[in-house]
Design goal:
Layout (H helix, E strand, L loop, with lengths): L5 H8 L6 E4 L8 H10 L7 E7 L7 H4 L6 E6 L22 E6 L5 H8 L5 E6 L5 H22 L4 E7 L5 H8 L3 E7 L13 E5 L2 E6 L5 H11 L5 E7 L4 H14 L5 E6 L2 E2 L17 E5 L2 E2 L1 H10 L5 E7 L17 E7 L2 E4 L2 E4 L3 E7 L4 E9 L2 E6 L8
Parallel strand pairs: 1-2, 2-3, 3-4, 4-5, 5-6, 7-9, 7-10, 10-11, 11-13, 12-14, 13-15, 15-16
Antiparallel strand pairs: 6-8, 8-9, 17-18, 19-20, 20-21
Length: about 400
Amino acid sequence: MYEESEYIHCALRYQHSLKVLYIPRKDHPMSEKGKWLTHQIQQFPKLHSLIAHDTTAGLRDFEEMMDIRQVKEFRMYTNEAIDISQEYNHSFIKPCFNIQSLNAAIDFDDSLLPYIMQRFPNLKYLEINLYFPRTASTKMKQDRYFANHLQTFLNYLQSIPKHNIKLHSSIELLSSIMEYTNNGDLSVSIYSDPSLYQTEDLVPEISIEKHKASLSYSRYCQRSHLFDIWTRCSKHINHLDLCMTVINKEDKIYQSILDVFAICKRIKSVEYTIECDMMLPPELAKTPSHNHSLRELFLKANYIYPEAYTIYSHWLPGLRRLSIEIPYKSGSQHKIPMPQTHLNSLKLVFRDPIYLQHGLLLQASACIVLKIRTNAERKVYTISKQDGLVAIEEINVPAILI
């Protein structure tokens, strides 16, 4: 018998109650010791989950372990490229009905997804993170596979209640993916960190969920590239979540959100987050384009200039719900001039109510004054906390002071 590691020795002591087991990364499942371990864990009656971290083995190498009938979940995270040059005969793949949850962070190869589709017919949850292609040939194979077989894979996902698939690919896939997600949720994140990848190509990470598609860029994304995305997905997008964490590019990205309004005529709601001040060129208020479909707008920024609200009011005549999230600043005023807007709901969130000033921690004011002006009337309210409850009180102020 082999000398067990301290962890496996401990696991064997609790084999009758253990539910989760980490597979030692030094023990390849096809090695003699790996096969010994497979035999041992068959005796774990309550074992539910197997987890393989930093493994150099491939998914197929764990077949015997996954076939243990009490195991319902398998997670694996590879740490280096696997030798994937072998050809596999899919007619000999034995379906594994007991595995209901599969989570794999792994390199792409031509046979991976066909194997998963045939091997796991009973999944309730599937998460696959395909690493960024390490070679040009791998990228070419991956692009070719999804160009020819994306719909087959999406059809397979239809049967899985919850899933999240991540891959680096071109936006040419996006229209089909958006059509699959059905309710039209798209999330786009742009991070200005060119050190992540050395490739010069602008290749996003695409994430496919049951009712949502997401794109994440590690580099600054040109407005023209985003314009291409909006054009491809215009008939599918109902909700857009756009997050930009870009430094020193602010003057080049403000119009991207307006492009959405101009192109996506069916869109219902937008969440727009930017890690800097939000401003829009005043001349945009004079453009004739409007979006009559959008009803809800969420804005999050370090500061939002009043002119931005005026432009949104001009561009979005159908807007009814507005949410704003900005940092709290003591004694400051925040103006929201939207003369062409008829809101049913306004939500204001002030972050960081406890803040540092002159080396002292200060608490936000206990009272907020809200002034509302319309063409017909002017109102002033105070919003405060009393005995843990929020109190709203209308106050009488001479019109000349409002």
